[in-house]
Amino acid sequence: MSEKQFLSTVKYVASTKPAFLLSEIAVYLDESETVDQMYTALLPHLANLGLTAKKIDKDYEVSRLLPSPAYCLNAVEEQRLGEYLDLQGLPPTYEEAIGQYITRKTGKDWSDPVIIERLRRAIVAQKDDYWKPTNKRSLQYSKGYSVLGYLAYHFPVYFMQSRYLLAQLARDGLLKREMTILDLGTGPGVIPLAIADFWTCLDTARATVFPVERSKEHIEAFSYLAKSVATKDSPVTIKPALEADITAPVDVALPERIDLMVFSNVLNELADLPVAARADIVMKYAERLSPDGTILIIEPAEEATSTGLRVMSLALKKRGLSIYAPCTYVWGTNCTPDRCWSFVTAPCIRPIRIMNTLAACNEPFRYVNTDIKYSYVMLRKDGKTRSPCCIPKDTNALRLSRIHLNVGKRINVVAAKMSEDLGDKETHMFRLCDGSAEKPVYGVLPAFHITPENQELVSAPYGAVLVIRNVLVRYNPAHDAYNVLVSRNTQILKSTPMET
Length: 500
What we know:
Elements: H1 3-16, E1 19-21, H2 35-42, H3 46-49, E2 51-56, E3 59-64, H4 75-85, H5 92-106, H6 113-130, H7 144-153, H8 155-171, E4 178-184, H9 190-198, E5 206-213, H10 216-229, E6 236-238, E7 242-243, E8 258-264, H11 275-286, E9 289-300, H12 303-318, E10 322-325, E11 344-346, H13 353-358, E12 372-380, E13 410-417, E14 427-433, E15 441-446, H14 456-459, E16 465-476, E17 481-485, E18 491-494
Parallel strand pairs: 4-5, 4-8, 5-6, 5-7, 8-9, 15-17
Antiparallel strand pairs: 1-3, 2-3, 9-12, 10-12, 11-12, 13-14, 13-16, 14-15, 16-17, 16-18
Helix pairs in contact: 5-10, 6-7, 8-9, 11-12
Protein backbone atom coordinates (compact mmCIF):
# COMPACT_ATOMS: atom_id res chain seq x y z
CA MET A 1 0.00 0.00 0.00
CA SER A 2 1.27 3.49 -0.84
CA GLU A 3 2.00 6.02 1.88
CA LYS A 4 -1.01 8.07 0.77
CA GLN A 5 -3.35 5.07 1.10
CA PHE A 6 -1.85 4.13 4.45
CA LEU A 7 -2.31 7.61 5.89
CA SER A 8 -5.85 7.82 4.51
CA THR A 9 -6.64 4.54 6.24
CA VAL A 10 -5.24 5.81 9.56
CA LYS A 11 -7.17 9.05 9.20
CA TYR A 12 -10.40 7.16 8.48
CA VAL A 13 -10.05 4.82 11.46
CA ALA A 14 -9.14 7.74 13.72
CA SER A 15 -12.35 9.49 12.69
CA THR A 16 -14.44 6.51 13.84
CA LYS A 17 -12.95 5.94 17.29
CA PRO A 18 -10.93 7.98 19.82
CA ALA A 19 -8.17 5.35 20.11
CA PHE A 20 -7.09 2.17 18.32
CA LEU A 21 -4.16 -0.20 18.01
CA LEU A 22 -2.04 -0.14 14.89
CA SER A 23 -2.52 -3.89 14.58
CA GLU A 24 -6.25 -3.25 14.11
CA ILE A 25 -5.71 -1.56 10.75
CA ALA A 26 -3.62 -4.41 9.33
CA VAL A 27 -6.81 -5.85 7.81
CA TYR A 28 -7.13 -2.74 5.65
CA LEU A 29 -3.65 -3.10 4.18
CA ASP A 30 -2.88 -4.95 0.97
CA GLU A 31 0.58 -5.87 2.19
CA SER A 32 1.56 -7.49 5.44
CA GLU A 33 3.51 -4.96 7.50
CA THR A 34 4.61 -5.19 11.11
CA VAL A 35 3.32 -2.69 13.63
CA ASP A 36 6.86 -1.35 13.98
CA GLN A 37 7.02 -0.66 10.24
CA MET A 38 3.62 1.02 10.37
CA TYR A 39 4.68 3.15 13.35
CA THR A 40 7.86 4.24 11.57
CA ALA A 41 5.81 5.27 8.53
CA LEU A 42 3.22 7.06 10.69
CA LEU A 43 5.56 8.90 13.08
CA PRO A 44 6.41 11.92 10.86
CA HIS A 45 2.69 12.51 10.18
CA LEU A 46 1.21 12.18 13.67
CA ALA A 47 1.13 15.90 14.44
CA ASN A 48 -0.27 16.71 11.00
CA LEU A 49 -3.09 14.23 11.55
CA GLY A 50 -3.78 15.50 15.05
CA LEU A 51 -2.81 12.13 16.56
CA THR A 52 -0.38 10.75 19.11
CA ALA A 53 0.96 7.23 19.60
CA LYS A 54 2.45 5.24 22.47
CA LYS A 55 3.88 1.75 22.67
CA ILE A 56 1.78 -0.85 24.49
CA ASP A 57 3.48 -4.23 24.82
CA LYS A 58 4.27 -5.21 21.21
CA ASP A 59 1.73 -2.83 19.69
CA TYR A 60 1.11 0.92 19.43
CA GLU A 61 -1.99 2.74 20.62
CA VAL A 62 -2.96 5.66 18.40
CA SER A 63 -5.27 8.29 19.85
CA ARG A 64 -6.53 11.76 19.07
CA LEU A 65 -4.25 14.53 20.18
CA LEU A 66 -5.75 16.63 22.93
CA PRO A 67 -4.51 20.22 22.57
CA SER A 68 -2.64 21.65 25.51
CA PRO A 69 -4.56 24.56 27.05
CA ALA A 70 -3.41 28.00 25.99
CA TYR A 71 -1.48 29.84 28.66
CA CYS A 72 -3.37 32.98 29.69
CA LEU A 73 -1.46 35.65 31.56
CA ASN A 74 -2.96 36.78 34.84
CA ALA A 75 -2.76 40.40 36.08
CA VAL A 76 0.35 39.78 38.17
CA GLU A 77 2.15 38.08 35.26
CA GLU A 78 1.18 40.92 32.92
CA GLN A 79 2.64 43.48 35.31
CA ARG A 80 5.75 41.34 35.77
CA LEU A 81 6.10 41.03 32.00
CA GLY A 82 5.90 44.79 31.53
CA GLU A 83 8.67 45.32 34.08
CA TYR A 84 10.71 42.57 32.42
CA LEU A 85 10.50 44.25 29.01
CA ASP A 86 11.67 47.53 30.55
CA LEU A 87 14.99 45.90 31.43
CA GLN A 88 17.41 47.10 28.76
CA GLY A 89 20.45 45.04 29.67
CA LEU A 90 21.51 41.44 29.28
CA PRO A 91 21.04 39.54 32.59
CA PRO A 92 24.31 39.79 34.57
CA THR A 93 24.70 36.01 34.77
CA TYR A 94 24.58 35.76 30.97
CA GLU A 95 27.04 38.61 30.51
CA GLU A 96 29.41 37.03 33.01
CA ALA A 97 29.08 33.61 31.35
CA ILE A 98 30.04 35.07 27.95
CA GLY A 99 33.17 36.65 29.42
CA GLN A 100 34.10 33.46 31.23
CA TYR A 101 33.67 31.39 28.08
CA ILE A 102 35.88 33.69 26.01
CA THR A 103 38.51 33.53 28.79
CA ARG A 104 38.27 29.74 28.98
CA LYS A 105 38.40 29.31 25.21
CA THR A 106 41.39 31.61 24.60
CA GLY A 107 43.38 30.80 27.72
CA LYS A 108 43.65 34.51 28.54
CA ASP A 109 41.33 36.94 30.29
CA TRP A 110 38.82 38.29 27.79
CA SER A 111 40.02 41.85 28.53
CA ASP A 112 43.59 41.07 27.48
CA PRO A 113 44.54 43.56 24.70
CA VAL A 114 45.54 40.72 22.37
CA ILE A 115 42.16 38.99 22.79
CA ILE A 116 40.29 42.26 22.38
CA GLU A 117 42.10 43.01 19.13
CA ARG A 118 41.36 39.54 17.77
CA LEU A 119 37.69 39.94 18.68
CA ARG A 120 37.64 43.28 16.85
CA ARG A 121 39.06 41.69 13.70
CA ALA A 122 36.50 38.87 13.88
CA ILE A 123 33.61 41.32 14.27
CA VAL A 124 34.77 43.51 11.38
CA ALA A 125 35.19 40.43 9.16
CA GLN A 126 31.65 39.28 10.01
CA LYS A 127 30.19 42.71 9.26
CA ASP A 128 32.09 43.03 5.98
CA ASP A 129 30.85 39.58 4.95
CA TYR A 130 27.27 40.45 5.90
CA TRP A 131 27.17 43.47 3.59
CA LYS A 132 28.33 41.52 0.58
CA PRO A 133 25.75 40.57 -2.09
CA THR A 134 23.60 37.71 -0.84
CA ASN A 135 25.12 35.12 -3.18
CA LYS A 136 28.66 35.96 -2.03
CA ARG A 137 28.16 35.76 1.73
CA SER A 138 29.56 32.95 3.83
CA LEU A 139 28.07 33.93 7.23
CA GLN A 140 29.42 30.84 8.94
CA TYR A 141 30.06 32.18 12.49
CA SER A 142 31.27 28.66 13.16
CA LYS A 143 35.00 28.66 13.87
CA GLY A 144 37.33 30.08 16.50
CA TYR A 145 37.06 33.82 16.98
CA SER A 146 34.00 34.11 14.71
CA VAL A 147 31.96 32.41 17.46
CA LEU A 148 33.55 34.52 20.18
CA GLY A 149 32.92 37.67 18.15
CA TYR A 150 29.29 36.58 17.71
CA LEU A 151 28.93 36.22 21.49
CA ALA A 152 30.38 39.67 22.14
CA TYR A 153 28.60 41.57 19.35
CA HIS A 154 25.43 39.77 18.16
CA PHE A 155 24.29 37.64 21.10
CA PRO A 156 23.12 40.52 23.39
CA VAL A 157 20.89 42.12 20.74
CA TYR A 158 19.40 38.84 19.50
CA PHE A 159 18.76 37.74 23.09
CA MET A 160 17.00 40.99 23.99
CA GLN A 161 14.87 41.12 20.83
CA SER A 162 13.69 37.57 21.59
CA ARG A 163 12.00 38.99 24.68
CA TYR A 164 9.65 41.10 22.58
CA LEU A 165 8.65 38.21 20.34
CA LEU A 166 8.10 35.84 23.28
CA ALA A 167 6.03 38.53 24.97
CA GLN A 168 3.91 38.87 21.84
CA LEU A 169 3.33 35.12 21.78
CA ALA A 170 2.39 35.17 25.47
CA ARG A 171 0.03 38.14 25.22
CA ASP A 172 -1.64 36.70 22.13
CA GLY A 173 -2.35 33.40 23.89
CA LEU A 174 -0.03 31.39 21.62
CA LEU A 175 1.95 29.84 24.45
CA LYS A 176 0.73 26.69 26.18
CA ARG A 177 0.89 25.38 29.69
CA GLU A 178 3.15 22.56 28.49
CA MET A 179 5.18 23.25 25.36
CA THR A 180 7.60 21.44 23.09
CA ILE A 181 9.83 23.93 21.27
CA LEU A 182 12.21 23.27 18.39
CA ASP A 183 14.98 25.79 17.66
CA LEU A 184 16.55 25.17 14.27
CA GLY A 185 20.02 26.62 13.75
CA THR A 186 20.39 27.55 17.41
CA GLY A 187 23.96 28.87 17.13
CA PRO A 188 25.28 29.52 20.66
CA GLY A 189 21.78 29.07 22.05
CA VAL A 190 20.24 32.53 21.90
CA ILE A 191 16.65 31.28 21.64
CA PRO A 192 16.78 28.44 24.24
CA LEU A 193 18.56 30.68 26.74
CA ALA A 194 16.11 33.54 26.09
CA ILE A 195 13.20 31.14 26.60
CA ALA A 196 14.64 29.92 29.90
CA ASP A 197 15.00 33.53 31.03
CA PHE A 198 11.56 34.60 29.78
CA TRP A 199 9.70 31.69 31.38
CA THR A 200 10.65 33.06 34.82
CA CYS A 201 7.91 35.65 34.22
CA LEU A 202 5.28 32.88 34.05
CA ASP A 203 3.86 31.22 37.14
CA THR A 204 2.97 27.72 35.97
CA ALA A 205 4.03 27.32 32.31
CA ARG A 206 6.65 24.74 31.43
CA ALA A 207 8.60 24.04 28.24
CA THR A 208 11.06 21.58 26.75
CA VAL A 209 13.43 23.01 24.11
CA PHE A 210 15.13 20.91 21.44
CA PRO A 211 18.01 22.85 19.80
CA VAL A 212 19.56 21.83 16.45
CA GLU A 213 22.94 23.15 15.29
CA ARG A 214 25.57 21.91 12.83
CA SER A 215 28.62 23.78 14.20
CA LYS A 216 30.61 22.02 16.91
CA GLU A 217 32.05 25.37 18.02
CA HIS A 218 28.58 26.83 18.53
CA ILE A 219 27.41 23.72 20.37
CA GLU A 220 30.41 23.94 22.68
CA ALA A 221 29.64 27.60 23.46
CA PHE A 222 25.95 26.84 23.94
CA SER A 223 26.65 23.96 26.32
CA TYR A 224 28.93 26.14 28.44
CA LEU A 225 26.46 29.04 28.61
CA ALA A 226 23.51 26.75 29.37
CA LYS A 227 25.36 25.16 32.29
CA SER A 228 26.60 28.51 33.57
CA VAL A 229 23.15 30.12 33.80
CA ALA A 230 21.15 27.01 34.77
CA THR A 231 19.04 27.31 37.91
CA LYS A 232 17.42 24.69 40.11
CA ASP A 233 13.78 23.87 39.45
CA SER A 234 13.74 25.78 36.16
CA PRO A 235 10.41 25.53 34.32
CA VAL A 236 12.37 25.09 31.07
CA THR A 237 14.23 21.91 30.16
CA ILE A 238 16.87 22.52 27.48
CA LYS A 239 17.92 19.34 25.74
CA PRO A 240 21.53 18.92 24.57
CA ALA A 241 21.97 20.47 21.14
CA LEU A 242 21.60 17.96 18.31
CA GLU A 243 24.47 18.26 15.83
CA ALA A 244 22.75 18.22 12.44
CA ASP A 245 22.34 20.25 9.27
CA ILE A 246 18.86 21.81 9.25
CA THR A 247 18.78 21.68 5.44
CA ALA A 248 18.39 17.89 5.71
CA PRO A 249 15.22 17.43 7.81
CA VAL A 250 15.29 13.65 7.39
CA ASP A 251 18.55 13.59 9.36
CA VAL A 252 17.12 15.53 12.33
CA ALA A 253 15.65 13.50 15.20
CA LEU A 254 12.50 15.50 15.81
CA PRO A 255 10.00 15.36 18.67
CA GLU A 256 6.69 13.73 17.77
CA ARG A 257 4.83 17.01 18.14
CA ILE A 258 6.13 20.60 18.14
CA ASP A 259 4.18 23.52 19.62
CA LEU A 260 6.61 26.29 18.66
CA MET A 261 9.19 26.07 15.90
CA VAL A 262 11.83 28.81 15.62
CA PHE A 263 14.17 29.77 12.77
CA SER A 264 16.15 32.71 14.17
CA ASN A 265 18.56 34.54 11.86
CA VAL A 266 19.31 31.33 9.99
CA LEU A 267 17.23 30.94 6.81
CA ASN A 268 18.77 34.04 5.22
CA GLU A 269 22.16 32.36 5.58
CA LEU A 270 21.08 29.62 3.16
CA ALA A 271 21.79 32.03 0.31
CA ASP A 272 22.87 29.22 -2.01
CA LEU A 273 19.32 27.85 -1.95
CA PRO A 274 16.45 29.49 -3.87
CA VAL A 275 13.41 30.71 -1.96
CA ALA A 276 11.37 27.68 -3.03
CA ALA A 277 13.95 25.29 -1.61
CA ARG A 278 14.06 27.15 1.71
CA ALA A 279 10.27 27.12 1.87
CA ASP A 280 10.31 23.36 1.20
CA ILE A 281 12.66 22.88 4.18
CA VAL A 282 10.30 24.81 6.46
CA MET A 283 7.30 22.80 5.22
CA LYS A 284 9.09 19.52 5.90
CA TYR A 285 9.61 20.51 9.52
CA ALA A 286 6.03 21.81 9.66
CA GLU A 287 4.80 18.24 9.29
CA ARG A 288 5.61 17.85 13.01
CA LEU A 289 3.92 21.11 14.00
CA SER A 290 0.87 20.73 16.23
CA PRO A 291 -2.43 21.68 14.59
CA ASP A 292 -2.50 24.72 16.91
CA GLY A 293 1.26 25.33 16.88
CA THR A 294 3.24 28.33 15.63
CA ILE A 295 6.27 28.76 13.40
CA LEU A 296 8.35 31.85 14.19
CA ILE A 297 10.90 33.07 11.63
CA ILE A 298 13.16 35.98 12.60
CA GLU A 299 15.58 37.82 10.33
CA PRO A 300 17.68 41.01 10.53
CA ALA A 301 16.06 44.27 9.40
CA GLU A 302 18.57 44.88 6.59
CA GLU A 303 16.60 45.63 3.40
CA ALA A 304 17.50 42.63 1.22
CA THR A 305 17.16 40.16 4.08
CA SER A 306 13.91 41.64 5.36
CA THR A 307 12.39 41.72 1.88
CA GLY A 308 13.55 38.14 1.32
CA LEU A 309 11.61 37.08 4.42
CA ARG A 310 8.41 38.54 2.97
CA VAL A 311 9.00 36.71 -0.31
CA MET A 312 9.48 33.43 1.54
CA SER A 313 6.46 34.12 3.77
CA LEU A 314 4.29 34.31 0.67
CA ALA A 315 5.84 31.08 -0.64
CA LEU A 316 4.89 29.37 2.63
CA LYS A 317 1.38 30.84 2.46
CA LYS A 318 0.96 29.37 -1.02
CA ARG A 319 2.06 25.98 0.39
CA GLY A 320 -0.81 25.99 2.88
CA LEU A 321 0.40 27.80 6.00
CA SER A 322 -1.43 30.89 7.18
CA ILE A 323 0.32 34.09 8.21
CA TYR A 324 -0.69 34.95 11.76
CA ALA A 325 1.41 38.13 11.97
CA PRO A 326 2.49 40.72 11.10
CA CYS A 327 0.82 40.72 7.67
CA THR A 328 -2.91 41.11 7.15
CA TYR A 329 -4.46 40.29 3.78
CA VAL A 330 -7.42 42.66 3.94
CA TRP A 331 -8.88 41.58 0.60
CA GLY A 332 -7.89 37.92 0.79
CA THR A 333 -5.39 38.33 -2.05
CA ASN A 334 -1.71 37.44 -2.26
CA CYS A 335 0.67 40.36 -2.01
CA THR A 336 3.62 41.51 -4.13
CA PRO A 337 6.44 41.35 -1.56
CA ASP A 338 9.45 42.14 -3.78
CA ARG A 339 9.79 45.65 -2.30
CA CYS A 340 8.26 44.99 1.10
CA TRP A 341 10.88 46.24 3.55
CA SER A 342 9.10 46.00 6.89
CA PHE A 343 10.61 45.65 10.34
CA VAL A 344 10.10 46.33 14.05
CA THR A 345 12.19 48.61 16.24
CA ALA A 346 12.52 48.64 20.01
CA PRO A 347 14.53 50.67 22.55
CA CYS A 348 18.30 50.29 22.34
CA ILE A 349 19.91 47.91 24.78
CA ARG A 350 22.66 48.70 27.24
CA PRO A 351 26.01 47.45 25.87
CA ILE A 352 27.74 44.71 27.82
CA ARG A 353 31.19 45.27 29.35
CA ILE A 354 32.97 43.41 26.57
CA MET A 355 31.30 45.63 23.97
CA ASN A 356 32.38 48.79 25.82
CA THR A 357 35.94 47.47 26.01
CA LEU A 358 35.94 46.68 22.29
CA ALA A 359 34.71 50.23 21.61
CA ALA A 360 37.60 51.84 23.51
CA CYS A 361 39.46 52.62 20.27
CA ASN A 362 39.58 55.10 17.41
CA GLU A 363 36.46 53.66 15.71
CA PRO A 364 34.09 52.78 18.58
CA PHE A 365 31.04 52.67 16.29
CA ARG A 366 32.32 49.44 14.71
CA TYR A 367 32.01 47.46 17.92
CA VAL A 368 28.85 48.75 19.62
CA ASN A 369 25.69 46.87 18.63
CA THR A 370 22.71 48.13 20.63
CA ASP A 371 19.95 48.77 18.05
CA ILE A 372 17.00 46.40 18.10
CA LYS A 373 15.54 46.16 14.62
CA TYR A 374 14.17 42.90 13.27
CA SER A 375 11.77 41.38 10.78
CA TYR A 376 9.61 38.42 11.65
CA VAL A 377 6.71 36.28 10.56
CA MET A 378 4.50 33.95 12.60
CA LEU A 379 2.80 31.14 10.67
CA ARG A 380 0.09 28.68 11.61
CA LYS A 381 -1.77 25.68 10.22
CA ASP A 382 -5.19 26.60 11.59
CA GLY A 383 -5.77 29.83 9.68
CA LYS A 384 -5.70 31.93 12.85
CA THR A 385 -4.60 35.55 12.34
CA ARG A 386 -3.65 38.23 14.81
CA SER A 387 -5.63 41.02 13.12
CA PRO A 388 -8.76 39.65 11.42
CA CYS A 389 -9.69 41.65 8.36
CA CYS A 390 -12.66 43.90 9.13
CA ILE A 391 -13.99 46.53 6.74
CA PRO A 392 -16.88 48.54 8.22
CA LYS A 393 -19.98 48.47 6.06
CA ASP A 394 -20.08 52.27 5.87
CA THR A 395 -16.53 52.45 4.46
CA ASN A 396 -16.19 52.55 0.69
CA ALA A 397 -12.56 51.41 0.80
CA LEU A 398 -10.20 51.31 -2.16
CA ARG A 399 -7.81 48.43 -2.73
CA LEU A 400 -4.24 49.70 -2.80
CA SER A 401 -3.75 47.74 -6.01
CA ARG A 402 -5.89 50.45 -7.66
CA ILE A 403 -4.19 53.44 -6.07
CA HIS A 404 -2.43 54.35 -9.33
CA LEU A 405 -5.84 55.14 -10.82
CA ASN A 406 -6.64 57.62 -8.06
CA VAL A 407 -3.67 60.01 -7.96
CA GLY A 408 -4.93 63.47 -6.97
CA LYS A 409 -8.15 62.05 -5.52
CA ARG A 410 -9.34 61.58 -1.94
CA ILE A 411 -9.95 57.97 -0.94
CA ASN A 412 -10.65 55.65 1.98
CA VAL A 413 -8.40 52.66 2.66
CA VAL A 414 -8.19 49.81 5.14
CA ALA A 415 -4.57 48.79 5.67
CA ALA A 416 -2.08 47.57 8.23
CA LYS A 417 0.60 49.84 9.66
CA MET A 418 3.75 47.99 8.59
CA SER A 419 6.59 50.15 9.88
CA GLU A 420 7.68 52.35 12.72
CA ASP A 421 7.97 56.07 11.98
CA LEU A 422 10.12 56.51 8.86
CA GLY A 423 9.83 60.29 8.94
CA ASP A 424 11.05 62.98 11.33
CA LYS A 425 9.65 65.33 13.97
CA GLU A 426 8.06 67.56 11.35
CA THR A 427 6.56 64.86 9.12
CA HIS A 428 5.57 61.38 10.27
CA MET A 429 5.55 58.60 7.68
CA PHE A 430 4.48 54.95 7.95
CA ARG A 431 4.33 52.10 5.48
CA LEU A 432 0.80 50.85 4.78
CA CYS A 433 -0.24 47.52 3.30
CA ASP A 434 -3.56 45.79 2.59
CA GLY A 435 -2.04 42.77 0.85
CA SER A 436 -2.88 44.00 -2.65
CA ALA A 437 -0.45 46.84 -3.41
CA GLU A 438 2.01 46.34 -6.25
CA LYS A 439 4.16 49.33 -5.22
CA PRO A 440 4.98 50.70 -1.75
CA VAL A 441 2.36 52.94 -0.12
CA TYR A 442 3.08 55.32 2.75
CA GLY A 443 0.83 57.27 5.06
CA VAL A 444 2.24 60.80 5.51
CA LEU A 445 1.12 62.98 8.42
CA PRO A 446 2.64 66.46 9.02
CA ALA A 447 3.04 67.09 12.74
CA PHE A 448 0.91 70.27 12.59
CA HIS A 449 -1.98 68.20 11.14
CA ILE A 450 -2.18 65.72 14.04
CA THR A 451 -5.62 65.65 15.67
CA PRO A 452 -7.40 63.23 18.04
CA GLU A 453 -9.21 61.90 14.96
CA ASN A 454 -6.08 60.91 13.01
CA GLN A 455 -3.38 60.31 15.64
CA GLU A 456 -3.91 56.51 15.51
CA LEU A 457 -1.52 56.51 12.57
CA VAL A 458 1.21 57.53 15.00
CA SER A 459 0.12 55.68 18.14
CA ALA A 460 -1.15 52.35 16.76
CA PRO A 461 1.29 49.45 17.15
CA TYR A 462 3.17 47.78 14.31
CA GLY A 463 0.84 45.45 12.41
CA ALA A 464 -2.41 47.13 13.53
CA VAL A 465 -5.15 47.32 10.89
CA LEU A 466 -6.42 50.87 10.40
CA VAL A 467 -9.53 52.28 8.75
CA ILE A 468 -8.32 55.47 7.07
CA ARG A 469 -10.94 57.87 5.72
CA ASN A 470 -10.35 60.88 3.47
CA VAL A 471 -6.71 60.91 2.40
CA LEU A 472 -5.22 62.49 -0.73
CA VAL A 473 -3.21 60.28 -3.10
CA ARG A 474 0.15 61.47 -4.43
CA TYR A 475 2.75 59.65 -6.54
CA ASN A 476 6.43 59.90 -5.57
CA PRO A 477 8.46 59.36 -8.77
CA ALA A 478 11.79 59.53 -6.93
CA HIS A 479 10.93 56.30 -5.07
CA ASP A 480 8.30 54.89 -7.47
CA ALA A 481 5.86 54.78 -4.56
CA TYR A 482 2.57 56.32 -3.49
CA ASN A 483 1.81 58.57 -0.52
CA VAL A 484 -1.59 59.06 1.07
CA LEU A 485 -1.58 62.47 2.72
CA VAL A 486 -3.28 62.67 6.11
CA SER A 487 -4.80 66.01 7.01
CA ARG A 488 -6.93 67.50 9.78
CA ASN A 489 -9.99 66.23 7.90
CA THR A 490 -8.75 62.62 7.95
CA GLN A 491 -10.28 60.10 10.35
CA ILE A 492 -8.26 57.04 11.36
CA LEU A 493 -9.61 54.22 13.52
CA LYS A 494 -8.36 50.78 14.49
CA SER A 495 -10.27 48.06 12.69
CA THR A 496 -12.44 45.89 14.94
CA PRO A 497 -14.03 42.50 14.19
CA MET A 498 -17.34 42.89 12.40
CA GLU A 499 -19.05 41.68 9.26
CA THR A 500 -17.71 43.09 6.05
